[in-house]
Each structure stands twice: as structure tokens, then as C-alpha cells.
Amino acid sequence: MTERPPHPFHRVGRIGSWLDWPMVASARRLTRAPVMNAMRRWLRRAEPVLSVLLAPYRFLGQRLGAAMPKGLYARALIIIIAPIVILQSVVAFVFMERHWQTVTRRLSAATVRDIAAIVDLIETYPADPTYGEIIRIAQDRLGLIISVVPGEPLPPAAPKPFFSLLDSALSDEISQQIGKPFWIDTVGKSNLVEVRIQLGDKVLRVLARRSQTYASNSEIFIFWMVGTSAVLLIIAIVFLRNQIRPIQQLADAAESFGKGRTIEEFKPRGAREVRRAGAAFIEMKDRINRQIEQRTTMLAGVSHDLRTVLTRFRLQLALLRQNEDVRAMRRDVDDMQRMLEGYLAFARGDVDEPTLPTDVAALIEDVVSGSRRVGHVISGRFEGDPIVDLRPSEFKRCLGNLIANACRHGSTVEVTAVHADGWLSVAVDDDGPGIPPAEREMVFRPFYRLDEARNLDESGTGLGLSIARDIARAHGGDVELGTAPLGGLRATIRIPA
């Protein structure tokens, strides 16, 4: 017997299996590579067809997504209520409808048996031409109103109703138990069902109550669905309202903290996960406040020490004989003072100022009037409610930086403020050279300068736009740059109010 040569990837022992595994994996990758490439080629070719086939589903998904509520409360209600209502509908339709169908067939069979007995009596005892005794028995004992009409043909057959369970049940039972030509009327709105049976040269006309032949389930079905859905909806609303309220409180607290407002009465509540999120938010808030407090303390110390040194410089310069060199050194000291104030203002951010209801129209007019007094051509306009909750000194500095920047590079400046729809928007337009779109985000970086030096504030530190954006973001908004209708730059402050 010839011994088979070992497979090149045959693994012998534990060590061999580990050593040979990279070779086996490489072989498998080489084997799968043509298949995967073929599948990718097929998918690329089929992509246009798949896009066309999936277009209706995408359109339906977009419409459904647009129609769905956006709030967590409403979505949670739908998630809870919709499956239960669908399940109840299916159960009611499958089981209850089958139950009522069985009951209806049994009632119809019993009624047809009574009619068959009457037919047998009429055919067995034809001596009485008026059938008075049979009519009395049918009415008193069976609850049926009958009459025998000689020489009358059956009415023409009407089209069968599509959803009538009673019509099909009665027709089947009459065909099986009586086996004679018949005509029935079950579609009428009355409480009676009419049955006519051909008996030779005469017609037996039977009127039976609809309740004798049909078990109606529509009212019970509607009551069951509406009643149970209402109970489930009430329970879900009460339960979810208590679960959603802590999330809303956490969102309001985070929004207030982002706008720099004081948070006093927030405590973690609700489910365990919501409590963890609330506790994490409180810890983050405390850590940020500690960091801001430490930075403010450090900057206050640095500011005090540097101002002391600058004050000594001024005193020594004042004691020297006044000449051109001394005056130049005094100007340098003044420039250092302005630059120091700019750096400290940017680093400090005036975090200690509280949020107050402020007349923004008067504040804007104050800044605009100050620019007019130094010779700039500037106009201001305000629309809406002038009272807005903000930090007045910070906002005034933000607006002042933008207006000073616009006045420095344009001959005409327009300030337009609008308070509407929960937002305060202030647009500062000028007719200067503007800023290229590619540079509009970079100018907000600290110390970044363009060739036209649009980011310089009065201190020459290159922090004007950076300070303005930091102040706007501390209020929960932002500063954006665009093209002004005057042809220059438009700087827009947008904060929630």
C-alpha cells in the first residue's frame, strides 16, 4: 500500500499547528480573493439596478422619518403603544373573528333547521290551504314570521356581498339541509333577514331576526381595541412622564451651564442611568468651576505683579529728564500695558459676571454712539423685544471688538440686531476689503493675523475676534463671518435669548 505524501499545510502537534497557521491563513485568503473580487464586480454592476429598486423604500423611509416625532417622550410612547396595539389587533382578528365565525355558522344552521322543519310540515300536510296552524307554530315556538305565497317566482339573484359572513353561512346551510331553490337578503339595514324558498308552484317567505342567525362582533371589537388602548396609553403617559422629566431637567441644566448661568436646584433623579449621567454632569461642572477659579486666581496674581512692575517703570521714567528716548520708552510701556490687559481679558473671559436682563437696544446704541464720537460713520438698528438675559459687560466687549474691527477696515459700518424666535442676532457689516472664505475660520485663532491685519484689536494683540467668539460661545451662541451687502465683511453674533 502506497503511503500518501503529507499535505503541505498538514499540522502535526500543538507547536506545528501554531507555526503552520499563517501559511494556512494565507492559502485561505488566496482562495477567497477571486470570489470576493467577483462579488465586488457583481455588486458594482448591479448597483444602478439596486438603486432603482430601493428608491421607493428610501423615499418611504424619508417620509416616515420626517413624519415621526422628534422628541424622546413621543417616540417612547410609540415604541410602547404600537407593538401592543398591533398584537391586540392580530389576536382579536385571528382568534375572536374565528370564534364569532363559528358562532354565526351554528346560529345559521339552527335557523335553517327550523325552516327545514317548516318546509317538511308544508309538504307533509298540504290539506290546509292557508297554513294557519303552521304559521302560528313558527311564530310562537320558533320566532319566525312566515307566509306562503302561491304562484310567485323567486326574485332575481343579487350579487353576493364581499365581506358578508352571514350570507355565505346561510347559503351553505340552506343548500345542504333543504336543497331547493332559494333567495336570501342579508344586506339590508333592518334587523330582519329574509329567506325565500321555492316549493313547487308556491314560495315560502321567512323573516327571521338578524340576532337569530348572526353574532355581531364589530361593536365589541371596537370597544375592546379602544378601551385597552386607552388604558395602556394612560399608563404609558404617566410612567414615561416621570421617566422623561429627569432627562429634561438634566438637559436644561447642561444648557444653562453652557450659557454661563447659575445652576442652583439641580439634583440627579430618575432611573439609575439618568442618575449616573446627572452625577457625572455635576462632577464635570464642579471640576470646570474649580479650574476656572484657579485660573482666575492665578491671573489675578500675575496681573498684580506685572502691573506693579509697569508702575515702577512709569515712575522711573517720570523721574528721568524728558527727551525723545524717554518718550519712546513711555510709549512702549503704554503698549505693554494695553497688551497685558488684552491677554488677561482673553485668558480670564470675565467669568465672574452674572447673567442679567439687559436692554440690548440701549447697549448697542451706546457702542455705536461711542464709535460716532471718534469720527466713524456707523448706523444701528434694532428689531424685537430689547430685553435679553446675558452678561452685559462681556456682550458689550464682544460687540465692541467686532465694531472696532469693522471701523478700522471700512469707511461705513451698519449694525443690525434682531430678537425673534428665541434668538438674538447682531450683524456688523462694513465696506472694507473683507476676508477670503478660506481664511474666515482661521482668523478666530489667537494671535492669527492676515496681511490686512483684520484680527487686530486696539491693543494690537491679534485677539479681537478670538475674544468675541469666546464670549458668544460662553452665552451658548457663536460668531460667524460672511460677505456683507456693503461688499466687505459681515460678522454675525447669534446667541439664544
UniProtKB/TrEMBL annotation:
The chain crosses the membrane at residues 72-96, 220-240. It is found in: Cell inner membrane. InterPro entries: 2C_sensor_his_kinase, HAMP_dom, HATPase_C_sf, HATPase_dom, His_kinase_dom, HisK_dim/P_dom, HisK_dim/P_sf, Sig_transdc_His_kin-like_C. GO terms for molecular function: protein histidine kinase activity. Signal peptide: none annotated. Residues 241-293 form the HAMP domain. It is an enzyme of class 2 (transferase). PROSITE patterns: HAMP, HIS_KIN. Residues 301-497 form the Histidine kinase domain. Its EC number is 2.7.13.3. The keyword ATP-binding applies. It catalyses: ATP + protein L-histidine = ADP + protein N-phospho-L-histidine. It comes from the Bacteria. It is a multi-pass membrane protein. Keywords: ATP-binding, Cell inner membrane, Cell membrane, Kinase, Membrane, Nucleotide-binding, Phosphoprotein, Transferase, Transmembrane, Transmembrane helix, Two-component regulatory system. This is histidine kinase. It comes from Kaistia geumhonensis.
